[in-house]
Fold:
Amino acid sequence: MSSVEEYRTKCTFCSVQDDIILKRGPEKAAFFGGNSLFKLYYDEKSKRGLCPRGNFTLELLNSPYRIRKAELFGEECSLEEAIKDSVSELKRIIEKKNNVAILISGNHTLEEAYLAKKLSNDLNTELLGLFPFEDEALLSVKNDFSFMTLGESDVAMIVGDVFSLSPTLARPILDARNKKRGNRLVSLDILKGRVSLFAEHFNVKPGYMSYFLSVLLDYLEGNSKLKSNETFAGISIARIKELAEVLRNSENGQILFSNIYGHFVNPYSIVSKLSRISEITENRFAVIPIGQNSLGVGRIIGGFNNKKIMDALKEKKIEGLIVLGGDPFEFIPKFEDIFGYLNFVLSTAFFKGSNSSECIIPSTFSFEKKGSFISLEEKIVNLGEPVSPVGDAVSDGDFVSDLLSALSGAKVKARVSVPKVLPFMKETNEKKPSSLTNKKYPFVAVGMGLPFHHDRGELSRRVKWNQQKNEPYVFINTDRVKELSLGGKVKIETPNGSSVFRIEDCGNLPFDIPEDIIAVPVHFTENAQLFLCDSDSDGIISPGAVKARIVK
Amino acid sequence: MKKQKAKREKRVVLDVDRCISCHACDVACYESHSEKFCLSRSNFDITIDLPLHCKHCTDASCVAVCPVEALEKREDGLVYHNNFRCIGCLSCTIACPFGVLSAKRVRHIISKCDLCYDMLEEGKEPRCVQTCTSGALSFEEITYEDENERDRVDARVKAKPWRRL
Structure:
């Protein structure tokens, strides 16, 4: 057993990038030993542990449902064959001067992002985009954050439910709150979440967060004359003033923003306003993306291109689509319709899902490849020698590199430099939004993250660890369910589309669901039908809360 | 009463003011115990959803009632559950004064916390404690001032056993 060695790596699930220790045997094979199936070790240095998703990290390595062989038109083939066919298809599309779009997930390394950029140059296309789409709104921020200073903050203002999306940040945040009498933890969200249980919570109306922050910003800048009897977005003026004073008087404050699919409307405006609030009040500001390295990948892409890609897809101006690190059927709403006219779809993926792309390449997790990431603390993190990938799985970097070699004949090597933060775009004037609810649509569908969705196979809306298909569910206020005499299942309809959901017991949540809200856990692919995938008023694609109704 | 020598034992302690109900402890336990949930959860009302750990009682009721001696109190303080002896009669789940033994059988037997003794042997803490995201769980030495105090605590537990029937 002396050949078994410990290898430090990072959890693949979110941008917090918690440390894990993996045991590996001869030839870098992941080691599964002891009296349990897996031997997972937590890095005691970081003292942050792992969230429920992170605890499944090793299971993902050896999952029987991972794609192990490349597939062409549904038939297994060798990697060489897949590359050869892909290159001939791509060459044919370029020769006809048609467009190819590339979407790359935020879970890639900087090197892979560089190669994807190179591929877009070689394919003569500007259409290189980042997914998950909600992370694009965060690319203009340079994080001012460290785990150590977070634990020392006298004021922490959390916008969004950080404890649900990145639970391992809970320890430093609660440490900071408990450190000294008078330290404050403030939560701003459109729905109560796990942070609100421990914080002074400001429940802003869905769709109004950007407007609420503009009122707060105006007050901080001394531009507003607020009357004492006014309320903004459901918050009284006295509380807005109190919040402003808390932020102003903090000596070592931290503002954190975290978004998820279908949650905040106009997240780019929210980020921009929070950035200015942090400047005025001299607090640190950081964003927490969903993708492990979205900040790095997005900055290398160097633009906000998702709107162009989605518009081109809808207008049928694209003939080929390359999706690195995901299944387009799972995250692009109504992709079935788009798929019909695309001549070539290539995707790299970990698991067999609904994927029916022409070419599927088995992909690797971050602990199966070398590369560098940008951490939340804005440091370059290098992952050294990985464990061996399963089957024919190949890192997207190696695959794109082979593709580039076959396209141009020259071997391409990734060069990595620290990518620049994108400048803020010009902001549109903030107008008071109209209410999301009306007579026809009395509810608001709000995307919510859960820290756990482990027991039935869905780890996230992008990764399934087994093929059990769980029934998608939503949370609706218990009294409202009784009042409307709803059965076990409901059809939720929004202006964008509809899906059928089971009504889950709200008792499984540690907080209440308001009467007019339908809280939709975002890890089900059925949710994509509900939320908008058009550009918002900021001009970027970021699905937010949307008006909804229940069809019995 | 003559004071006896103080005894130290380590137990998993929950700080209820820090638990964010993320279930990381559940998953760590589930993954490392052949897909059995060895932790129970309390659901007192909508706002409280906390992990419940076996207290590894000094004079454990579950050990006393087990008809096949599948449960034993070890010298290191651990109340150990022998999977091969368990017949799944659920007597222990009824006897447990804290309600931490779940009446849900997994593969005909009960599931019970073993404090991740494989980790303890390596000088590490139980997995639920290591993985806890908010620092709510800790593995701490429980020090009784003397043996008599521990006996008094045990007597209180015995006097008011909680029944889940």
Observations:
- Confidence is low (pLDDT under 50) at residues 159-165 of chain B.
- Chain B touches chain A through 27 residues (CB under 8 Å).
- The CA atoms of residues 10 and 141 of chain B lie 4 Å apart.
